[in-house]
Amino acid sequence: MKKHDLSVFEIEKEGFRLKLQRGASASQPTVAAPAASGSPAKGAVAGAEPPPAAKAIESVPMKEIVSPMVGTFYRAASPDAPAFVEVGKPVTEDTVVCIIEAMKVMNEIKAETSGVIAEVLADNGKPVQFGQALFRVR
Amino acid sequence: MFQKVLIANRGEIALRVIRACNELGIRTLAVYSEADVDSLHVQLADEAICIGAAPSLESYLKIDRIMSAAEIGDVDAIHPGYGFLAENPHFVEVCESCNIKFIGPSARAMQSMGDKNAARAAARKVGVPVTPGSDGIVETEDEAIKIAKKLGYPVMIKASAGGGGRGMRAAHNEPSLKSAFHSARHEAQKAFGNDQVYLEKLIVNPRHIEFQVMADSHGHIVHLGERDCSIQRRNQKVIEECPSAVMTPSLRKKMGNAAVKLAKSVGYENAGTIEFLVDQDRHFYFMEMNTRIQVEHTVTEEVYGCDLVKEQIRIAAGQPLSPHVARAQPRLHAIECRINAEDAANNFQATPGRIDFYYAPGGRGVRIDSHVYTGYTVPPYYDSLIAKIITIGSTRINAIDRMRRALDEYYITGIKTTVPFHAAMMRNGDFRDGNYDTGLIDRLMSAGKLNLSTRPLRLHE
Q: Across chain B, what does the average pLDDT equal?
């Protein structure tokens, strides 16, 4: 880092994000435990808590919201309605993030985790299977 | 003919159905649990959808998820295989209401034969002999005692909602009848959600002989002869053969006609099997009907020269019975050994786990129906059947010796299997003589009469 005079270094890989920043107390990067992806549990798996903002180096664990059923994934309640969530939207456990339609029944899917939507992983109107990752949440 | 079929099953039967569909030019959609991600049938299907976590209750028995997969996969029909939802009339009804063809009988026919006690009543109605027993459900202990006295001991208490050898208790005298009656009801409630039981005379050392029927949607029903499934362990079949060593042409005609008559009386359609018990005097008694394709359908296929799964699909698509099936005659002799992931030397304890090396025998007259391969991990959540080996011979003894030869070449490491057990059976005098009944295995095992050692092959791993 010194050699290349970098002040900020970010890496995102397989469910975790690492951000290194040079500062007065910078010495060792802290790496949070990577979140388990593809977990069969409804909603996301809790990752490690991010270190306090006062630390010069921070790392951000990612969680995934996975599909609890087989069906068709919809971002919004209807074609002309706005999407339930977009990247950057904060969610809590009860936030409805999408609809999965199964056998003509529209099922509202809750986040079951809290954080901020980091990425939308499934395509609107496309089929999803059990356990398939729908959103990444940080 | 269907464009696309969903296979609502796993393991060797899912592969079997996919093969039939493939040969018929039908696209396939496999549904699988998270434990079956690496399963061969998932790889070989045209499409695959994960429907749940490993336990069957969370995946293969989840009707809503299977129907959802059928909907997004836009399938025309569903083949249920055997086990799981294959004999679930509610599932048939759900398919019907979703306009997806269930490859099997109607919900009504399935229901009338699925209730074991009602099936006996249907048999009695058309004059098919049934095992002497109670006229219906036995409600109280006193009733059971009275009926047992009339029938004569020993008796068998059977769950009406049971089947496949489960939910049965034998009683050899009045004291044991009392406890057997109550424990059978308790077990039935737990296993099937229904504690109704009936009584049957326990036929001592019977032969289990079943008849394959095939019925189209135009009212044409035929039987394709018998299978002898008397080699059983704890009421589970382990070796089956076609034809039966004790069958005579006249007995086959009588039993076959009875099977067809019964199937016709309930408006049966598609593949089905009528199970009989045959006593030592060659009297036959209707026991139960299986309203699905069976594990051992293979031996009938080899002897009668037909593909029963393809015929199931054709019938479901509305076609009449194929001429070669309607006119099929038995030729040759076939034996099937069920290879389970079990340690025969250790009370057949289940041995799931990774198969480090798998080499299956070949050569003339050897058929292997298996979904396993080198590196495959047998999951602990489902039944332990990993392969069916079928041999065909011009005579019964030739089929047995061919099986003996083939089993000696069967090389599976990493897990224990029942190959050594079957190898010992092929050498057993009683089995070779055709002189056996449903009690043979238990007798041989308890007397320690089976040599379960194997000659190890030295194959590079």
A: 94
CATH class of A64-137: mainly beta
Please judge whether A103 and B67 are an interchain contact, meaning their C-beta atoms are less than 8 angstroms apart. yes
- Tens-digit pLDDT profile for residues A63-81: 999 999 999 999 999 999 9
Confidence of residue A55 (pLDDT cuts 50, 70, 90): very low
Q: Which of residues 16-35 of A touch B (CB under 8 A)?
A: none
Closest by Cβ to A129, choosing from B50, B64, B98: B50
Q: Which CATH architecture has domain B4-103?
A: 3-Layer(aba) Sandwich (3.40)
Q: Would you state the pLDDT for residue A40?
A: 40
Query: What does the pLDDT look like over B242-262, one tens digit per residue?
Result: 999 999 999 999 999 999 999
What's at B433, amino acid-wise? D
Tell me the pLDDT band of B190, cut-offs 50, 70 and 90: confident
Could you tell me which chain B residue has the CA closest to the CA of A132? B50
Spell out which residues of chain B touch residue A71, defining contact as CB-CB under 8 Å: 68, 72
According to the CATH classification, is domain B207-446 in 3.30.470.20? yes
- Residue B449: pLDDT band (50, 70, 90) is confident
ipTM of the complex model: 0.78
* Chain B contacts to A (CB-CB under 8 A): 34, 49-53, 59, 64-65, 67-69, 71-73, 98
Among residues B168, B187, B169, B190, the alpha carbon closest in space to that of B178 is found at B169
Distance separating alpha carbons of residues B238 and B8, to the nearest angstrom: 24
CATH superfamily of this structure's domain B132-201: ATP-grasp fold, A domain (3.30.1490.20)
- Residue ranges of the domains in chain A? 64-137
Q: How far apart are CA B198 and CA A50, in angstroms?
A: 64
Half-sphere exposure (CA, 13 Å, Cβ side) for B189?
A: 7
Q: Is B113 exposed, middle or buried (0-12, 13-18, 19+ CB in 10 A)?
A: buried
Mean pLDDT on B399-420: 96
DSSP string of B298-367, one letter each residue:
HHHHHHHT--HHHHHHHHHTTPPPPHHHHT----SEEEEEEEESEEGGGTTEE--EE-SEEE---STTEE
From the candidates B169, B227, B252, B292, give the one annotated as an active-site residue.
B292
Tell me which residues of chain A, numbers 45 to 104, contact chain B at a CB-CB cutoff of 8 Å: 69-72, 102-103
Whether A1 shows a pLDDT value over 60: the answer reads no
Q: How far apart are CA B213 and CA B190, in angstroms?
A: 32
The residues spanned by each domain of chain B are 4-103, 132-201, 207-446
Q: Output phi, psi for B360, to 5 deg.
A: -100, 145
| A56 Cα to chain B: minimum distance (Å) | 41
CA–CA–CA angle B167, B168, B169 (5° rounding): 130
Partners of A131 on chain B (C-beta within 8 Å) are 34, 50, 53
- A37 at interface of B, judged by CB pairs closer than 8 A: no
Tell whether A129 is within 8 A of chain B (Cβ).
yes
Q: Please confirm, yes or no, whether B292 is among the known catalytic residues.
A: yes
Distance from CA of A101 to the nearest CA of B (A): 9
- Residue-level pLDDT at B129: 95
The rounded distance, in Å, linking the Cα atoms of B332 and B225 is 13
